[in-house]
Amino acid sequence: MSKFKRIPCFLLAAAMALNLAACGGNEAPKETEATTAVQETSAEETTVEETSKEEETKEAEKTAERVLRMDAMSSAGYPAPYLSSPKGAGYAVVQYIFDTLIWKDDKGFVNYLAERYSVSDDNKTYTFKLRPDVTFSDGTPFTAEDVKFTFDYMTEHPYSWVSTSSVKETRVVDELTVEVELNDVYVAFIADVASNLPMLPKHIYEKIEDPTTYTEPDAMIGTGPMMYESYDKDAGVYTFVKNPNYFYGDVQIDRLILSGYDDPKTALLNGDIDVATTASYKQAKSLEGTENITVLEGQSLWVSRLYFNFDTPALADKKVRQAMAYAIDRQEIVDKAYNGAGLPGSIGYVHPESNWYNPDAENYALDVEKAKSLMAEAGAADSDGDGVMEYGGQPMSYELLISDSDETLAELLKAYLGEIGIELTVKSADDDTVKSLIQEGNFTLAANGHGSFGGDPKYLASLATDTSGAAKITTQGGTRWQSDEYDELFSASTKELDEAKRAEMVDQLQEIIAEEVPTIALYFKSNAAAYNNSVFDGFYYTMDGISSGIPYLYNKLILTTGTWKAE
To answer: Between 20 and 30 A from 551 (CA), which of 277, 292, 352, 368?
Structure first.
């Protein structure tokens, strides 16, 4: 199998010239003025010329660019925080240029722009000591003033990727020391804020009144391992060059090119790209065993979920929701609707591979008989024998809202719930429409996917309810689920600094979710990616994602820890 090595054009041209000079044996050259002139050249001149060419070739080989080509989300926009990050995976593009105080490697959180940090006795103030050797790509030193500016600026100009609402005040102590005081104890501050907030250059952004529309090149000045060179919006191609002054280690590539491909698997095999991250799970896995190709699998932090509108009396009944959970074969959904690319959803919401997962929470293994028993306990009955249960005198016949692409899932859900007397009719629409209708509460039952648990249990906030009694539609969908116990326990868990005690609280939260079944997690998606290990080796999936919901092989630290192979 080919190693898909890419030969720079100038090297190829030199090689072709040498080959032509050495191969003239098969056919006598035609007598021309040019060939005659070569023949009359002295031996000394020929030797000098050949020596010169050899030296040029060797020098070219020394200076050949190390170019790494990856597929990527090509429509994320310019790689500045306010321009790419709102597109979700666009944050993965931004992180090549912009750094955070704390980051993650393959094992967990690491001090990054911050050399170290400490926490006050009341656990409300974080003091960060910055590295002394950091500069922005334009040569300007990175200081505490930039940290303070970033927190203040992103409070004034809310940043879609992470909120600074937990921050009361940011203070400069000295050039390399900064204090961040919180409004209250927030145990997830490092995981949620310090490791996600990209540090902005004050000398640039203090002049930018609207960062969401500013696309000038200086908006892309950061401290990261790569520097912005260009973004071809029409072609969807990003080009970055090595930051020679990167503080965290020597970057092993000279140029990084990100572009979108309709068929990333073929592009990888053809040598058009070296890393395929957007290939489907099935496509990537099919490359296992291919020479020079490494296939990796990891969490995607994406979940498919069944939502309930609690304005429907039957769906507001906990026993009915529990019955539905027992009736649904989540493993079959993984196998048939998603081609085996994932894990069955856990009813307690937390991914089963997370350190925070509670295996003792009820997970509703398939049990149709138990489901029927719970329906009877809820008072549901088929009084007219038509196969459809009635609840409170009303037939349990509901519309299921679902995306156009989830036809198989819709058919499976119809079959599962039909077994226990719940009749579904399917209403399909494009994904954006489905999401909007769910958020508006304009549905009865709905199935949809979204980013899920990753990094810290603070993400359980997405199931927090509204104790005011008003209609509540969480980011996970559903309406009017009320649990004072859950809200109080969740709030307490965000302030508990003892990890063992907090773990107990998170276990309890999962047990409440499993008991109440405010939604049903159907499926946790898995990602698979493939890369050419003869070009660049050392990619890995970062456990629980490199940031909020970004699990891909995009961790920028790979650029210093990986190994360039294409010599």
So the answer is: 292
Every domain of the chain and the residues it spans? 1-25+37-63, 70-292+533-564, 299-525
Cα–Cα distance between 375 and 389 in angstroms, integer?
Answer: 9
Q: Are 551 and 301 in contact (CB under 8 A)?
A: yes
In angstroms, the CA 136 to CA 113 distance is 12
Residue 477 has what DSSP assignment?
B
Distance, CA of 444 to CA of 315 (rounded, Å): 9
User: Superfamily for 299-525?
Assistant: Dipeptide-binding Protein; Domain 3 (3.10.105.10)
Q: Could you tell me the pTM of the whole model?
A: 0.77
| DSSP-derived secondary structure for 115-154 | EEEEE-TTS-EEEEEEPTT-B-TTSPBP-HHHHHHHHHHH
Integer Cα distance of 465 and 442 in angstroms: 19
Rounded to 5 degrees, φ, ψ at 523 are -165, 130
For residue 339, give the amino acid letter: N
CB 95 within 8 A of CB 554: yes
Residues 6+ apart with CB under 8 A from 550: 89, 91, 92, 95, 301
| pLDDT (0 to 100) of residue 209 | 94
| DSSP classification of residue 197 | -
Please name the fold of domain 70-292+533-564.
D-Maltodextrin-Binding Protein; domain 2 (3.40.190)
How far is it, in rounded angstroms, from Cα 134 to Cα 76?
A: 27
The pair of three-digit structure tokens given for residue 481, joined into one six-digit string: 């689920």
Max Cα–Cα distance, the chain, nearest Å: 109
The residue to which tokens 């199998």 are assigned? 1
DSSP classification of residue 30: P
| pLDDT, tens digit, 9 for 90 and up, residues 73-89 | 777 889 999 998 766 67
Question: Are 431 and 296 contacting, i.e. CB atoms less than 8 angstroms apart?
Answer: no
